[in-house]
């Protein structure tokens, strides 16, 4: 990644919202205080076109495994680099485990008031 993108992700505070209508899920994701953001609508278990926060195109697949939302994203610009994300709820927090190129990180999200 370019130095400016690394800094952007390092400094980023993300905001995420979910909506479910029948078998369709809509996720809104963006950076707090930054213009833009992305909205993705998909059905669990079906591939769809998405994009990273920086706009890089990705192919994505999301499944529900028990009480966890499991996402697999393949970046189309980075020679098929994969990012795997698992989300689950612990108490009043959403826990997120992200793995990409052999590196992992944990994030905790709080519900907005």
Q: Helix and strand string, N-terminal first? A: HEEEEEEEEE
Which sequence of strands runs across the widest sheet? 4-5-6-7-8-9
- For the termini, the CA-CA separation is 34 Å
Kindly state the number of beta strands: 9
Main β-sheet, in a few words? 6 strands, antiparallel
Instruction: Calculate Rg over CA atoms.
Output: 14 Å
Count of individual helical segments: 1
Which regions are unreliable across 5 or more consecutive residues at pLDDT < 50? none
Outline type: globular
Measured by DSSP, the beta-strand proportion falls in: over 45%
Description of the molecule:
It comes from Magallana gigas (Pacific oyster). With 113 residues, the protein is mainly beta. The chain contains one helix and nine strands, in the order H-E-E-E-E-E-E-E-E-E. The protein has one helix at 3-11; strands at residues 14-21, 24-31, 38-43, 48-51, 57-65, 68-75, 82-90, 93-100, 103-110. A hairpin with a 2-residue loop joins strand 8 (93-100) and strand 9 (103-110). The longest helix is centred in the first third of the chain and has 9 residues, at 3-11. The N and C termini lie far apart (34 Å). The model has no long low-confidence stretch (mean pLDDT 85).
Give a topology summary:
Elements: H1 3-11, E1 14-21, E2 24-31, E3 38-43, E4 48-51, E5 57-65, E6 68-75, E7 82-90, E8 93-100, E9 103-110
GO molecular function: lipid binding
Family: Belongs to the calycin superfamily. Fatty-acid binding protein (FABP) family.
Protein name: Fatty acid-binding protein, brain
Note the main attributes of this structure.
113 residues, mainly beta, six-stranded antiparallel β-sheet, three-stranded antiparallel β-sheet, 1 helix, 9 strands
